[in-house]
Every structure is written in C-alpha cells, then in structure tokens.
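User: What would this chain look like folded?
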Amino acid sequence: MIKKMYALITTVVCTLLVSPVFAGTLENVKSKDVLTLGVSEGVTGFSAPNDQGVWAGFDVDMGRAVAAAVLADPDKIKFVSLASKQKIVAVSSGQVDITSRTTTWTMKRDAKQGVDFTVPVFYDGQGFMTTKASGLTSAKQLDGASVCVTSGTTSELNVADFARANSITLETVVFEGKKEAFHAYTTSRCDAFTTDMSQIASLRTTTKNPADHVILPEIFSKEPLSPLVKHGDNQWKDLVTWVLYGLIEAEEKGITQANVLEVKKSSKDPVVLRMLGVSGDVGSFINLDNDWLVRAIQAVGNYGEIYERHFGPKTKLNIPRGLNNLWTNGGLLYAMPIR
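Assistant: Here's the prediction, encoded as structure tokens.
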C-alpha cells in the first residue's frame, strides 16, 4: 500500500513539474517566441496604429524594449487592444504577458485584483475638457454639468471626490470604453469629458477643430501609470521592472540608441560597464544574458528618447516633461541602482 501511495505521489509531482500551466511567463514567452502586449483601443502618443496600421507610441515602445531584452527582437510582439475595464482581467488571466496600456497604480488593483505593478513610467493627473463656447475657465465652474467618463477606471471615483471637495454637483455619464465616452462628448451628449490630462491632450488632437475645446487648468488626482504583470510571477515582474529602470538609467548616463555600442566599448564608468554587460553578471539576476539592456536601448532608445519621440515639441501633443523628468532635472524619475 505504501509503495502504491509513493508511486501515486511521484506521478502527481512529476506531472505538475512538466505541466505548462505551471511554467512562468518568461518561459512561456520564450517558448512561443512572441510577447503578447496589452495596449489601448487607440490613444495617440501612447498606443495607436499609425498610417501603415502598425502600432506605435510610448506604451508600445516600453513593450518593444522588453521584447528586445527577452527575445532579441523588438518586433516579436502580438498586440491585444483592451478597453479600460478589460486590462486587469487580461493580465491576471494570462491573456496578455504584460500590459503597458496606461494604468494607474492604486492600492486596490495592486493588493486585490491579481496584478502587480512594475515601475511608474508616466506621472499624470486627471482633468476636464469642455467646449470653448461654454466660456468656462475653471473646473469649479462645472456645477450642474454632465461629464462623460469611462467605466472601470479611477476616473469615476475621482470625479465624485472632486465634486464633494468643491461643493458642486456633477452628473457622470458612464461608457464602456474611452472611444465611446469621448465620442459622446464630441457629439454634445455631455458638457465635459474627463480622463488623465495626457490622454485629454491626445484625444483633443483628433477632433475636427481642437481649438474649439479647452482643457481646464485643475489637476485633481495622482495618476502614476505603470505597466502591469500577473501577480505572483516574481521572476517576470523583476525582469520587466529592471528593463524599464534600465531605460531610465540609460538617459541619466547619456546612453542613447545611437551611441550605446560605442559607449559599451569606451566607457570607464563602472556603473555603465555593469549596465551594458562589460563587467559583472547582472543579466543573470533576471535570467537573461548580459546584453539585455544593450538590446533594449538599441531597439527604442533611452527613456528621454522615447518621451521625445511621442510627446516632445515636434509632436502634435507637445506635453512638457514636468514630473516625468529625471530626478536630477527636478522630476520624479529615479531608477534603482543596477548592481
């Protein structure tokens, strides 16, 4: 009897060890040779198909950096477009390996909804947009207004908090997706539209005449936006986290898409030498080889280059970096030490 029980236990244990269900995300990504990336429904600057139908944007480049580090090819990505309310479930269920879609780091999401946040890569805040014809110059003048908002976001609670804090009444009109909410606003179903300020700026550029819409000055929430991974897979979380930190640290060290190989050859900075795999073995800390960060930088550049490409003064959005500057320039971006 004891021998039979031992044989049964051995069989069960061996089955669990070889079952793909128990494989980590890193192993799954390598096995399928593609990174499945959750993106938005189409937000210019963050993630949207370009004129050739190719996904592009700040969030897309964050995903491409991870693909380059893991698969040595930034284009080995399968894009999955997600509405706001779908992104948490898509990550927690394993539908996507990561979503770099704009997602606010909150206590509930982090502690109760089966996902882990990695690194805040964009510091934002919620605001309002309304028509220029309304004559409003402050969000505090919206008393009695209807506001289009997306379900499954932090925006609903933030609007309610703003109204209570300023003793005004706001009627929220809730829509399943951001596209639907914004379309309702532009077709006069609501007096105002609300979401993160960066996305308001992005969506405003898609209107027939952007000058007909004004972004009110109040920023009334904290919205630290961070890529998401599945809760409990610490190996994968660590990997994504340090790829993102690497892009931030690369900007601080002046390592760019154009000069990364030359810096690797000529630098005497011990920090840079560790980052670029010349000395030490930091790649092994995240189960990669020592050229992981070189590949990521070659693919998309450092954090500042990515920001400039999608939000800089030569773009339609032209969003000042502000809080998204390096800590050395008065911003909040601060990479943990790579050592």
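The longest strand covers residues 126-131. If you want, I can go into more detail on any region.
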